[in-house]
């Protein structure tokens, strides 16, 4: 996906009705020794980092349970859409653990430090409506009979992104992600570097031409 230039948006969904991702298999985990657990969690953290580093926008379609590592997977995505009946939580402390695949870092960046600490300390599960009210998800929708309401809303969101200039969207994502990790002056410099890369693109020229000619632009990602 990282190197496929035809890919504009990636949507993460589950094929299991009622479950987005239920997290680690604790029965499997119980059979591991301490070294194996550390290796497993390191690989999991690396996977989440790979997802977060995808150059195109990513959307998690949460139509059911997203618990522990399942919520960490959703947090590694750029955008999240949830069914109102979905259940989300970093429940690790209820099992004698703490989030180890990015949850302690991505949740506070998403909802703020106070709420993140409350959710992690208590291991509480929240529904889609609560998640939307605290900014954990971008949109919440009532679940449908097929059980894929969040996925359908995620597709609608993806279709809003698709017509936009692909390279500009990628640079926008990069500027936001890198800028959030530094002070604002450094962030402005990062934005400037991303903008400079976008200036010579054919898509920028096409966008200007389409505006002048009062027609829809036809972007090619170049």
Automatic annotation (TrEMBL):
Keywords: Lyase. CDD domains: crotonase-like. It comes from the Eukaryota. Transmembrane segments: none annotated. GO terms for biological process: fatty acid beta-oxidation. The keyword Lyase applies. One of its GO terms (molecular function) is enoyl-CoA hydratase activity. GO terms for cellular component: mitochondrion. Pfam families: ECH_1 (PF00378). Belongs to the enoyl-CoA hydratase/isomerase family. This is ECHD2 protein. The lineage of its organism: Eukaryota, Metazoa, Chordata, Craniata, Vertebrata.
């Amino acid at each position: 996906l990282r190197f496929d230039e035809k890919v504009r948006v990636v949507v993460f969904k589950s094929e299991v009705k009622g479950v987005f991702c239920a997290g680690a298999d604790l029965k499997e985990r119980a059979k591991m020794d301490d070294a194996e657990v550390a290796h497993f969690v390191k690989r999991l953290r690396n996977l989440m980092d790979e997802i977060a580093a995808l150059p195109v926008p990513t959307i998690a379609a949460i139509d059911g349970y997203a618990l522990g590592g399942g919520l960490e997977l959703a947090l590694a995505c750029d955008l999240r859409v949830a069914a109102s009946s979905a259940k989300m939580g970093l429940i690790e402390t209820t099992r004698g653990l703490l989030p180890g695949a990015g949850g302690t870092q991505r949740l506070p960046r998403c909802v703020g430090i106070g709420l993140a600490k409350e959710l992690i300390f208590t291991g509480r599960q929240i529904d889609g409506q609560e998640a939307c009210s605290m900014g954990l998800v971008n949109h919440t929708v009532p679940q449908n009979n097929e059980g894929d309401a969040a996925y359908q809303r995620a597709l609608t969101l993806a279709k809003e992104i698709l017509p936009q200039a692909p390279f500009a969207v990628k640079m926008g994502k990069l500027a936001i992600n890198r800028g959030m990790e530094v002070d604002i002056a450094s962030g402005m410099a990062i934005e400037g570097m991303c903008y400079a890369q976008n200036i010579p693109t054919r898509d920028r020229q096409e966008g200007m031409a389409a505006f002048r000619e009062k027609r829809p632009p036809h972007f090619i990602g170049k």
